[in-house]
Amino acid sequence: MAPPDADTPAAVLAIRSALHTNRHAQMFFDMLVGELGQAAYVETANGGKVLRLFRRDDDGWIVPWPLVSMSLTGRLGIVIPLTGPMGDPEPRPGPTPKLRGLGPGEITLHDGSWSLTVTYRDTGVWMETSRTGPVTVHGGVVSALEQGQGSPFERLARYMARLDVAAHGAARVLLPEPIPQGAAGSWLVARRALNESLWYGEMGPGPMWMAADGYSGEVRIASTTREDTLSRWHAAVERVQPRPPVPEAPPEPGPDFVRHIE
To answer: Are residues 186 and 62 located together in one domain of the fold?
Structure first.
């Protein structure tokens, strides 16, 4: 009979070992922010219980896909097993670590659209791991954790600080002030607007630099140079002053079609 982790990718085992409690995950997150320095851009939600760490370029523009996402209250999403019924994982062997601040949570290490996630149970000990993408996701973490000085979570932080998240695309987001949808949400709004302009042929042929606002996507500019695109975009934003779309009022209540049977 094969051991339980026989089919688990080595990168998953390495990250799970380095972040085996949610306290280690928090220390890893804090150290990674320190490693990045001015390049770190942290967004918070749910009263500071959800954190997302992005990388920021020297000129202040943000790479709009996160480097690390973390929840201090529990799972951020829903995991559906490929086979078999959904059930609680078996308790992990060994004593519960004697650390303060243990509790449920989740941490995800991103690499573009792929990621590895460690989820923690109420005791703060890892409960399960999940992965999006191929088994090669974060494959370099194994050798990174075998070399260098410091604890495993410190070496993991240095590995993530060196990760080239900008290699996954040229998109950048400028946020002079925090906004509700954050860096990733602003990019989704802008990308949808730019795709619409491309579909309707509004951007012209050939290679172009394109910019759109992340509020409503109504300010869209394209030019052959980055400098000209940004200059025209800033001017258009000042002129239009885009705002998030106003939610539509709910419809008036219709007739009651419920028949009461006595």
So the answer is: no
Per-residue pLDDT of 163-189, as tens digits, reads 998 889 889 999 988 888 899 999 999
Q: CA separation (Å) from 238 to 58, 76, 139, 187, 241?
A: 24, 37, 45, 19, 6
Domain residues for 112? 10-79+98-167
Q: Which residue has the tokens 């308790």?
A: 91
Contact indicator for 29, 164 with CB cutoff of 8 Å: no
Q: What mean pLDDT, rounded, does the chain reach?
A: 84
What does pTM read for this prediction?
0.80
Residue 103 phi/psi, 5-degree rounding, is 180, 180
Single-letter amino acid code for the residue at 215: Y
- In terms of Cα–Cα distance, which of 7, 15, 5, 3 is closest to 126? 15
The token pair at 250 is 């709910």
pLDDT in tens, 94-103: 554 444 457 8
Q: How many CA atoms lie within 13 A of 57 on its CB side?
A: 14
DSSP 119: E
Q: Are residues 208 and 187 in the same domain?
A: yes
